[in-house]
Amino acid sequence: MLKYLFTFFTLSFFIGSAQTDSVAIILNSSEHDTVKVKKTEVLIGRDGGVLKQKLVWCKQLQDFAIEKGRRDILARAYFLFGTTYYNFSEYDNAVPYLYKALPIADEMKMELLQSKIYNYLGIIYSDQGNSRKAIYYFRKTYSIAVKLDDKSQQFTSANNLGVDYNNIGVPTLGIFYISKCEALAKKYKVTKYLPSLFGNKMDSYMLLDDKKKAREQLDSIYKYFNLTDKGREEQLSLNFFSAQYYAFVDDDKTAIPFLEKNISIILPTELQEFRKNYKVLTQCYKAVGDYKNSYEALIKYYQYSDSLVNSEQIQHATEIENTYKNFKTEKELEIQKLNNINKSLQLKRNKAFLILVSCLSLLLIGGIFFFYKLFRDKRKANHLLEEQKSEITHQKKEILDSIYYSKRIQEGILPTENELNQKIGEHFVFFKPKDIVSGDFYWAGKNTGNNFLMACCDCTGHGVPGAFMSLVAYSILNKIDENAEHKNPSEILDYLNIELPKFFKKEDASQQIKDGMDMSLIEIDRKNLKLKFSGANNSIYHIREGVLNVIKADKQPISADVDMRKFVFKTTELELKKNDLVVMFTDGYADQFGGPTAKIKGNLFRQGKKFMYKRLEELLVNHALSDMTTLKNVLEKVHMEWRGDLEQIDDICLIGIRI
User: How far is CA 326 from CA 103, 165, 180, 337, 394, in A?
Assistant: First the structure.
């Protein structure tokens, strides 16, 4: 059964000529590089074959890319490595290559390749049971496909999103995306995928306990197959969907033969097919009281599940390796450039010296000695300059290495995307430091029942000073979060205001540090749809049905100044509704200077003006109903277009939470 789809628009232009050529012959031909790469992709991507041979072909394409200095082809070679390993169910080897291809595709603006990489990563994580992470990648694929108007990838990602929303128990979204996919299949007459879509939609209705509509989808599958010839894959789909339905209506005796028939025709490499058929078969045997066969089917299910297990450490290690290699490559290019400049200067210096010697030969002996002494002094000075330059370069490298390591530490304490998904649900975070490290940060507290805490903070300054203050604030917030007495937002800000001066241990007013931070802190009760807010100079936005309300903060920072301890922050409470959008922010986005010279809504904007909060509010209202990924992308795009070639003036942090 085609649970996941990769594409439904196939290109056959190169297939005939690629089938008889080896990769070596193709790459050594006189054809254009684009044609060579396309033929190689077709040859490697054909069904069947031996893994070892296909990996040799991938390596030949990789070597070709390196020899030509073509990073775009190198990205495709890594992608082919990943998909080849995937096709042979070697996920542990597939994932690192996909992550190698991803940063190059991003660097080269290869958006179509990016979407394909995200799609494969989503399928791998879904096969391993991590549907939430799979949805994260499928949404990226879908977003790019919509942007590029790529119907093939829209079809693929919509189906895959439908499957994984079913897996996490959100069948309404499953039906939404599968219906989009079904509409595309009918519009472009790709009807061979309709049975799979009917079956996935049947899963959604079974989750909704709607037996009538589930049966209608199964009948649609039978109706389709009665009009076409059934091959092995079609028979697999028909058997599995039939078994699923009969198990759903508690007719497990009827379901079992369908599953046993499937297991007899599944190919040895189709691990996912074995896994899902044994899973349902285990439940059916148990339901009819055949515990022996149920146990044996369960053992098989776990065996095939184990073969699909992947370690997230592969991803983490690969990302670090790629970051290091990119950084190393850039530095090597810079060093080479400096060496070339030094060689050019040396040649010019030697030429000047020869001319000087020729002229000096016509002068008096005294003049010759004078100029010789001048040259010797100049050489000493140059030598001294070279030593100073070397020392400065070494010191700069040590400082930069320390700051980059500090960045890794700061990024390590911030909540991960997966952690935020678990704690606050659907959201986006647009976080862009001005320098390598940031004075802005965000923090998420431990969930208490249906409640969660979220903070958006702007420490005094940016860069290294701001980062130090952010670490102090983050430490105090974690300490507060462990103390059950400080759960109300205003109490947390009061506690911060008291504890921050103690942290710096300066009670003498003449020595007291005056710095601090602005902060917005919210507590959301998802069950009762209530919000509590307290802010120190940082307000928040609440957007409902196209209307934006500003929830104002106290005009008072959290300060390390002991004289500010007595200030008491207030808490604002607000009733929420489903689909409301809550936005937290620091001042970096609105304060950015820039502006293209163009007319927007009748007004002429020029570079050198602040973006301002009014434009930010209009932007949020106009895109409030978009999904979080799209809204984040819009914010990033507008910021970059507004800024142009001007410098970013402050750290930026925006957080959006969909209720």
Answer: 9, 36, 39, 17, 20
Q: Specify the domain boundaries for CATH 1.25.40.10 within the chain.
A: 15-229
Please, which residues bridge with residue 584 across strands? 540, 655
Q: Which residues pair with 582 in a beta bridge?
A: 542, 657
Q: Is 62 exposed, middle or buried (0-12, 13-18, 19+ CB in 10 A)?
A: middle
Q: Which fold has domain 15-229?
A: 1.25.40
Q: How far apart are CA 461 and CA 217, in angstroms?
A: 60
Q: What CATH architecture applies to the domain 414-658?
A: 4-Layer Sandwich (3.60)
pTM exceeding the 0.90 threshold for the entire prediction? no
CATH 3.60.40.10 domain locations along the chain: 414-658
**How far is it, in rounded angstroms, from Cα 640 to Cα 261?**
57
Give the CA radius of gyration of the chain. Answer: 32
Give 439's DSSP letter. S
- Asked whether 631 and 619 are in contact (CB, 8 A), the reply is no
CA atoms within 13 A on the CB side of 116: 17
The tokens for 65 are 């890319």
309 pLDDT tier (thresholds 50, 70, 90): low
Chain segment 51-71, per-residue pLDDT in tens: 999 999 999 999 999 999 999
Amino acid type, 340: N
